[in-house]
Design brief:
By secondary structure, this protein is α/β, with parallel strands linked by helices. The protein is built from eight helices and seven strands; from the N terminus they run βαβαβαβαβαβαααβ. α3 packs parallel to α4 and α4 packs parallel to α5. It is globular. The model has no long low-confidence stretch (mean pLDDT 94).
């Protein structure tokens, strides 16, 4: 197994911009992305989550590490349209206009189709797919009149790859991919770029607690480098898609692994 690389220093790719990131209060890709965008020069950041304690702790950590930047947090559930609207409006005010939206909120789980209840299916799709739609719709209503902005969605290689007990999650992530491609064509008319990153597996504390260690090791061993991604490596992909280095990427789903359809 290859060891993870050294942490990549910042290059000012998002200097002077602002960002809104959903599901960013845990120890996974969302929080890693929040750290990374601040390192890359974001001057106003709002993070959202459904866990109040973790959200407050995350804001405190980020503000402490970046005292000269405006960092705020807001409780928000992407399955609730009123909360989505309130979040986007609060972020617009806090950031004086949001330049970057990262749709990171998603929900997984393991269940065989024959045992899956309607509510199990619906819950995963409502957070992962419809939540991405709600956030994008709300944000575009502000970005389009300005004629600029970037949206990066968090998809998954399971949108391409078959895996047992993941039918609901895979269907939701495949939907995120298709939604990214279609919405990107509409947004491009207004100078807005929408793309997605499709991670395979990135280890973080919540994943280690919610999935069997044997399964995680098995999945990691299949990767090209023989290891899982570090969360900050996925955050780097998100930053690249948000930056001017991706100025001509529209509706792209970037595989953060060797696994393509």
């Amino acid at each position: 197994m290859n060891a993870p690389p050294d942490y990549v220093p910042a290059h000012g790719l998002l200097q002077g911009r602002s960002a809104l990131i959903t599901a960013a209060a845990g120890g996974g890709i969302g929080f890693a992305t929040a750290q990374r965008v601040l390192e890359e020069g974001v001057q106003a950041l709002m993070i959202a989550d459904i866990h109040e304690r973790r959200l407050n702790e995350a804001v405190e950590r980020l503000q402490s590490a970046f005292p000269d930047v405006k960092v705020a947090g807001q409780l928000a559930n992407v399955t609730d349209e009123a909360q989505v609207q309130a979040l986007v409006e609060a972020a617009e005010a806090h950031c004086d206009g949001v330049d970057l939206l990262v749709n990171n909120a998603g929900l997984g789980g393991s269940c065989r189709v024959v045992d899956m209840k309607d509510e199990d299916w619906q819950r995963v799709l409502d957070v992962t797919l419809t939540g991405t739609f709600r956030m994008t719709r709300a944000m575009l209503r502000f970005m389009q009149p300005r004629g600029r902005g970037a949206i990066v969605n968090n998809a998954s290689v399971l949108g391409w790859r078959a895996q047992k007990e993941q039918a609901h999650y895979a269907a939701a992530k495949a939907g995120v991919m298709a939604f990214t491609r279609c919405s990107a064509l509409e947004a491009a008319e207004y100078g807005i770029r929408i793309n997605a990153v499709a991670p395979s597996i990135a280890f973080h504390d919540h994943l280690r607690k919610s999935a069997p260690q044997e399964l995680l090791e098995q999945l990691a061993s299949r990767e090209a480098f023989g290891r899982a991604a570090e969360c900050w490596e996925i955050a780097n992909c998100i930053v690249m898609l948000a930056s001017d280095y991706s100025s001509y990427l529209v509706g792209e789903v970037l595989s953060a692994s060797s696994q393509h359809p």
